[in-house]
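INFO worker-7 received task bundle
INFO bundle size: 2
INFO processing item 0
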Amino acid sequence: MALDRARAAALVEPNVQRLYNFVFRLTLDRDRAERYVGDIFELAATKLDEAPAEPALWLLTLANQLLDARLPRNPEVNFDILDDTLRNEATRTDVVRSLSDPQRDFLLWELKQGCMTAVVNCLPPGERAAFVTCHVIKLTDEQAAKVLAITESAYKVRLSRARKKIGDYLAPRCEHVNPMNPCRCPARVGTALHKGFIRSVGPVGGEVSLRKAEPYGRYGTGIGQEDAPMRDIAAIYGGLPEPEVPAALGEQLIQKLSS
């Protein structure tokens, strides 16, 4: 179903960031997230006669249906793989010391966001979706249950299981949960770069990203990201920056839907 450009823009522009954030958190794959978001908007264009006046939750419902059909029943990563990737080699603090401040802040944010998203991706898809709708997208219980097409009680069970698994994994490891824990992002940047978990952008000392550089802070989630330890899982995940939507994605989607 082809839409006129104004209608396509009205569908895409207010919703593409939130939808991309939701899909990326559930897939841990930027390329797949971009492709799936395109598929979701194409599906939505064929069902616009079913869309409510405010389509944000409806689009998330379509996204969950698509992901439920495409994602494997078992997680593609697990906690052992994540430990092997980031924590089973010696720490490398020399890498962070060699970086300029903008690069350091960018890579630390990328590592924190990537690691926290990878932890969520160790959950089964249903629990993963419950956790993301609550703590990342920040829906109410009623809204989240509607998006996931389950009862509120079933949603709360999934969310409780997800919180426990994530909390049990991070509690003895992560500096953001407890500043006394052994795993600290500055010491892991070198390993994460070496293994391709995160990637460097731009030359040393140069512009690293069009994204505004944000101060990382030692523990990362205090006021202004200062050195305030935040042991609460909800606060850590609620404070993560949204992943950047590819610059041209919105316009590409509008053109595709209106062609």
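INFO item 0 finished
INFO processing item 1
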Amino acid sequence: MGNVFKSIALMPHVHKEEALRAARKLARWMEAAGRSVRVLREDAAYLGEGFTGLELEELARGLDLVISLGGDGTMLRAAAVAFVADVPVVGVNLGKKGFLTAVDAGGMFACMEDILAGRFLLQERMMLECSLPGDEARHYALNEVVVGKRELQRMIRLEVDIDGEYYHYYAGDGIIFSTPTGSTAYSLSSGGPIVDPQLDCIIMTPVCSHSLMDRSVVVSPESVIEVRVESGRVMPSVSLDGREEVALPQGGKIAVRRAARRLKMIKKADYSFFALLREKFDFPS
């Protein structure tokens, strides 16, 4: 597949100079290798002279690959573009944890040589689809959909149905609906399980629940989960991968399910999720 990567989008962390420098160097390297480089219009001003940005629809047309340069937040932003274009995404880690990225900055050019030569592992990762009340559009997330609140000091009350059957009533700060890919992110910090990202399931993790008995629940990927927001004094909201936050009407209902399409993600040929866990969490030997 590597030899078909002709048109490549670069998506750097625009507020990190290290990422911008890496993007400029990589753009020159890719062009010398005979590849066409694209950037979003909103990023072009940060990259400076020589970069002409495109709107998302134009950038996605005929695109072959998206490269993220930054941390996991930048990777989530790049993954959203790759999902729209239905092309693979690969990440260069210039952040801290770097769970989603494939390579550190020092190995960037060697990794890109392997990718252009077709020496890599291509994985497909489950995405979540979220529909919101009064909104015909569909929203997508690689890591998680979070139904929460904007007022810090108040609880939000949520009723959850699974496949049309009432399941549970939650009172607390909200609920995280995570993919296996996102199981090592917000869900984990809220007490959720680590799940192999090659699996398909929906992980439902309460945030600061008012009940000591509330724990994460792992739900079939075939299920549709509906959340009803009880009317009250808090302003409910939905956050998708920490990128997009949407205010909800009180009493509204949100539906979360597995997306019909999957995200294509490039990893190094020797990638191991469990080796990554040992490295990032500094497991004792």
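INFO item 1 finished
INFO post-check item 1: The domain at 128-258 is CATH 2.60.200.30 (Tumour Suppressor Smad4).
INFO post-check item 1: The first strand starts at residue 7 and ends at 12.
INFO worker-7 idle
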